[in-house]
Amino acid sequence: MNLFGPFWLSIQLALVTTLILVVIGTPIAWWLSRTTTRWKPAIQAVVALPIVLPPTVLGFYLLILLGPDGAIGSWWVRLTGDALTFSFTGLVIASCIYSLPFAVQPMQTAFEALPDRYLERAWTLGASKLDAFFSIAVPMSLQGVVSGVVLAFAHTLGEFGVVLMVGGNIPGETRVVSIAIYDHVETLNYAAAHRMSLLLLAFAFVVLAGMFVFNRRRGAR
Amino acid sequence: MIRLKHTAAKGDFRLDVDIEVPDTGITGVFGESGSGKTTLLRCIAGLEQGGGLPAHRRNVGYVFQQPTLFPHLSVRDNIEYGAKRARTRRMDSAKVVGILDIGGLLDRDPGSLSGGEAQRVAIAAALLRSPDLVLMDEPLAALDRDRRDRLLPYFDRLHDELPVPIIYVSHDIEEVSRLCDHLVLLDAGRVAANGDLFDVLARTNVPMLSGRNAGVVIWATPVDHEDGLTKFDFADGDIWAPGEFETGRNPLRLRIAASDVSITRERPAQSTILNILRATVEKICSVDDATALVRLSIGHQDLLARVTNRSVRCLELREGERVFAQVKSVTVKH
Amino acid sequence: MRAGALFLVALFAWPAVAVEPVTIAVASNFYATATELSTQFSDDTGIVVRVSNGSTGKLYAQILNGAPFDVFLSADAERPALLEKSGHAVADSRFTYAQGVLVLWSRDATDCLAVLQDANSGRVAIANPETAPYGRAAVEYLSGAGIWNAVSERVVYGENIAQAMQFAATGNATIGLVAKSQLRAPQLPEPACTWEVPASSHSNLEQQAILLARAAANNSARRFYDFLRSDEAREIVRRHGYELTP
Lengths: 221, 334, 246
Fold this sequence. Notes:
The complex is a heterotrimer. By secondary structure, chain A is an all-alpha fold. Chain A is built from eleven helices and no strands. Chain A has helices spanning 4-34, 40-52, 55-66, 71-80, 88-112, 116-124, 129-140, 142-157, 161-166, 177-186, 190-220. In chain A, helix 1 (4-34) packs across helix 10, helix 5 (88-112) runs antiparallel to helix 8 (142-157) and helix 6 (116-124) packs across helix 7. Chain A starts with a helix and ends with a helix. By secondary structure, chain B is of the alpha+beta class. Helices cover 23% and strands 35% of the residues of chain B. Chain B has a six-stranded mixed beta sheet, sandwiched between helices. Chain C is of the alpha/beta class. Chain C contains ten helices and ten strands. Chain C has helices at 2-17, 31-45, 56-64, 78-85, 112-117, 133-144, 148-152, 161-169, 219-228, 231-239, and strands spanning 22-27, 49-54, 71-73, 95-99, 102-106, 124-127, 155-158, 175-179, 193-196, 206-211. Chain C has a five-stranded mixed beta sheet with strand order 2-1-3-10-4. The longest helix of chain C has 16 residues, at 2-17. Chains in contact: A-B, A-C. The interface between A and C is medium-sized, with 17 and 22 residues.
């Protein structure tokens, strides 16, 4: 088992997941920040569940859901002929659910801090709601958006429990770095475990520090 | 004319307005806090729930009480924001920048501007949207007295040099008296009066304007100076006001509060009050148990006097009688 | 005064007098069997048995790092031997408690061998060969039978043999290579096919037990260890689908 294979796989997983979460998480965060529906607490709780639930719970239900008999899995098999469990795609789906609150919550907080009158001003100046969102809301909430992106990325990078349940530990496909480290420890290959762990540690540190530097620069303005 | 027909409900409060206002000049909307002024403006702009076109499709400019400039854009980008999205660019960018005197601010960061500068930028941005109507929600309320006074001349220039009608909301009768041509009075969500500013202010039967806010505005031209005072000619007579104002200019607005006007049957012989004008009693209206408002004609313009019912009885004042009006204080709106 | 002294003596003497529990570590394939064995043992002796399970390799690593186990029931002979050599176990306490049998199991496919060899027919679940002897045996069998190439792209690794069974049981893997002893589980769905892999096609799944160093002074552990070698225990083991060496 090489050093960079699982690491690169983890990065790919994190990148794809983060991209998807930006696309679906941003509208969710925006809607949550602006809605006054009485269902808001319930929906917020659902979004926040992956933070609180043990990854094994998530992994368990995903195994059923994404399996060939499950609602999503069976549809996938009919569509593509392949199984969803033990595949990179399956991991992406799992990661999106698992990291959703890490993307949504910082963005939601930033959007909530944006007073309505900035948007109202944009509308009265001729910007449609979508236009105002991209030209005003996002730039003015950039710290939150960036935090959401970075946290979702970092969180997916460290995913273990869910992957253990639905990954199948396939090299090059689902053997992400956290699983690889676990394997090394189990087989007493501590030297390799050290190498991988330190690499992941260093990478995560750089990414997070970068985010904090960025936020500080913007905040100081 | 512009038709304003709007209804809104917020908790216990109900707004119900259906009036027409001129499509030129500045129309003031005056009322106490909670009378629905801001709600009315927001309805016109499409910012309240209520159907109709969405806000960005209405060709209406809006100036908020706080400047609300976009902090991530430069001043230039802020004023161009609306212009870029306008369907037809009728407004001359250089002209607006010149009128509001913001040429030197264009490359600045909005966060570095003073309150007055920021508000001028906000007004420019609203104008450069080339709107059919500009709404201003107490734009000077967030500024201190000094800055407010310095900004007032800009509104004159807007009024004189741009064809766009402005609806100007304020709870300050002095401001409204200074700037507006037309006046709408809003009381608990309903229109209490709607008409020419000078006419509305001279009315005696408007409860909102029968107390502290009672007072008229007259036009008068400065013609002479003496003893630190300026003599103003109001066509049917003269009136003195403190200060030295440039003579030979256009007429200025003078505000005379009703509580500064008293009535005598005979010309008082030796009084410290300089302004004693011949007047005819036009209307006497009892406002409450103690007070009455009397409208006096001083030629082509009117004054309001706030007196006691008792005095009216004692003097046996009747409508149509010729009397003298003593004007204790005059404020020049410059 | 005398009652107080007696009380204090009893207080300090109690741990020595009370019956110590036994903690055993068992390879995943043996879990169900171990549960029945410990229940029997507790009924007979009143001693509490605590059972931990996991892949052989994982348990071995944990023992090396000081895990508090008294008896280790491995799925191979290698690791107990290593433990004996490194001094983690009581000398000469190794013995074979069961002989494992590898089977093919499929929930939906009616021909196990055909499914195994068909490169298009879905995932093949095996236990991680690095940590589970059954997984290693599975790889040996597949290589020896010349079908590793057809299978290698489709293999999915369970963390231990229990997870491999679970993958197959839920249909996530079309077929699994699991332990015969797992087939008895009552919650398992009825398979469409099973097939016993010939013992000659892989190295011996000789499952050895060993008494760990920590248990040398634990009387209860010794009693359990002895129980494992008894006829009563061996009968239970056989019933669960293992072969026995005489």
